[in-house]
Automatic annotation (TrEMBL):
GO terms for molecular function: glucosamine-6-phosphate deaminase activity. This is Glucosamine-6-phosphate deaminase 1. Its EC number is 3.5.99.6. It comes from the Bacteria. Keywords: Hydrolase. Gene3D superfamilies: 3.40.50.1360.
Length: 282
């Protein structure tokens, strides 16, 4: 145990699940994570159909590799999801709080088109009205849709380096928000933190200036109200934040720690994420 760092950073891979209320599992690598995520999405879609209603899912752009796999599964099985509603977690905004254009290289809506909707046989794809993204001009629309659909069957997502889920950023150091207050935050427009913009720039060549400052996000309220939560971590830098989520304090300072307050939350990580972080100068 290193006296300079939080105790949770020393937790071994074998002990990560110990005492955790979140269902925890480890897979080999990114391709395995993507396969698992695609299969879980399809399983929940099928389960909802068996119950007599089309599924409603909250889905991320990050992780992303599951979408072409899911499209191939659906095409091979000739399985229609036209009545399934997919609600994207978030989207980047322009400086005047409008969606970035679909043609913007970083648009999440554009990514969903290229890597999922456009890959599906047209007769199998969700109807256009079932391809949802939070509207920066109507923050209440998402909750209204969810209510009309009878709730969200499952929310899928990843975890940011500062513990955010969707773009629910932790409060700034001078702003205290209780766990209860944070859990009730709805869909909204917000500033992205420097930490989020920095790590997001790493995945697109390291140029932070191209990462927008503003975004619209599904709220913690909508996420935590979902019947099931399925989160995935496939980046090596997530090794520390996973430990913080599972074994640090439940706090708004680490939004993903609130997964531990949900009765049906799971977290699946790659082997290298489950390994303890090697914190030292080299």
């Amino acid at each position: 145990m290193n006296p300079h760092f939080p105790d949770y950073l020393d937790i071994s891979r074998n002990d990560l699940a110990r005492g955790a209320s979140v269902k925890f599992s480890v897979l080999k690598d990114m391709p395995d994570i993507a396969q698992h995520m695609a299969k879980t999405m399809l399983k929940i879609i099928e389960s909802a159909k068996e119950k007599g209603k089309p599924a409603t899912l909250i889905v991320p752009v990050g992780p992303v590799d599951q979408y072409p796999i899911l499209a191939e599964m659906l095409n091979q099985q000739h399985y229609s999801i036209k009545d399934v509603m997919l609600i994207n977690m978030d989207e980047y905004l322009t400086d005047d709080d409008q969606w970035v254009e679909l043609t913007h290289p970083l648009s999440f809506r554009g990514y969903m088109n290229r890597k999922f909707y456009d890959l599906l046989n047209p007769e199998l794809a969700p109807l256009p009205e079932n391809r949802i993204c939070p509207n920066p001009n109507d923050s209440g629309a998402i909750q209204n849709l969810i209510d009309q659909r009878g709730g969200v069957d499952a929310c899928f997502g990843g975890i940011g380096i500062n513990g955010h889920i969707a773009f629910n950023e932790p409060p700034e150091v001078n702003l205290a928000i209780s766990v209860e207050e944070f859990a009730q935050l709805p869909t909204r427009n917000l500033d992205l933190t420097r930490e989020t913009r920095t790590i997001n720039s790493v995945t697109v060549g390291g140029e932070i200036s191209i990462i927008p400052w503003r975004a619209v996000t599904i709220g913690m309220k909508e996420i935590l109200s979902s019947a099931e939560l399925h989160f995935y971590c496939n980046r090596i830098w997530q090794s520390s934040v996973v430990r913080r989520v599972l074994h640090g304090p439940v706090t708004s300072v680490c939004p993903a720690s609130l997964l531990r307050t949900h009765p049906a939350a799971s977290l699946t990580v790659a082997e290298y994420v489950a390994d303890p972080p090697d914190i030292r100068l080299r």
